[in-house]
Amino acid sequence: MSAIHFVRHGRTVLNEQRRTQGSSDSPLTPEGRRGARATAEHLGRLPLARAYLSPQGRVGRTADILLAGRPDVERTTLDGLREYDYGIYDGGPDEVMLRALDPARHLPGVLSGVHPGAPGGIGAADYLAHIDAALARIVADLREDARAGRPDARVLVVSHGMTLMTLLGRWVGVEIFSMAPMANCSVTTVELDPDRPREPTLVSWAVDPGGQGVTFETRDMADAFAGVVPVPIDWSHPQEPV
Fold first, then answer.
1. Average pLDDT over the chain, rounded to an integer
2. Which of 98, 126, 204, 223 is the most buried (most CB within 10 A)?
3. DSSP three-state, residue 22
């Protein structure tokens, strides 16, 4: 079986200030760098075939720590791994964004492809299409690995909280929204047969090697997804690297 290790980026200045990050960016904090080093140690010397990265700076800085001393791991940047664009709420207080985009309505609306997005941000249909293209690229590459005699290839994906939750919620199942929150630098592992990508196996969820926790309030979202039918993943348009 092939495996994908999904890692959320390290804690940043805006995370610690409890400000919405989205399409904006900020540096990793000392705690964020410590968490990335803990995750690098947790990953050990796993034989990673490749690393797929969001183009945003906080992901690149996290990957530099995760892959320190591993020049053999090829880095591929995929635009579809970038964070959700919160439009006018990017950079502002989390509490303001959450009042405008109540997660109990916003998240189901995004996964079902109907949410129009925040003013100046991205609509759900476009957002999902970008994510799908990135995931399709990763799986297509794993399929090529398997056909080249490497059916157990492992890859690293470093991205963002909202994007990873959206990707995994539609791929693995919406029950993830009732599980532990995805801390900064947490590791979620999925195994799959690249020829049957619609049948992934969740091996581990949001393992937090550095004890980073989250900088936002969480709640069980199970009731919010009752009756929600996420848009199926479109595997037909693999994204070209940036």
1. 96
2. 98
3. coil
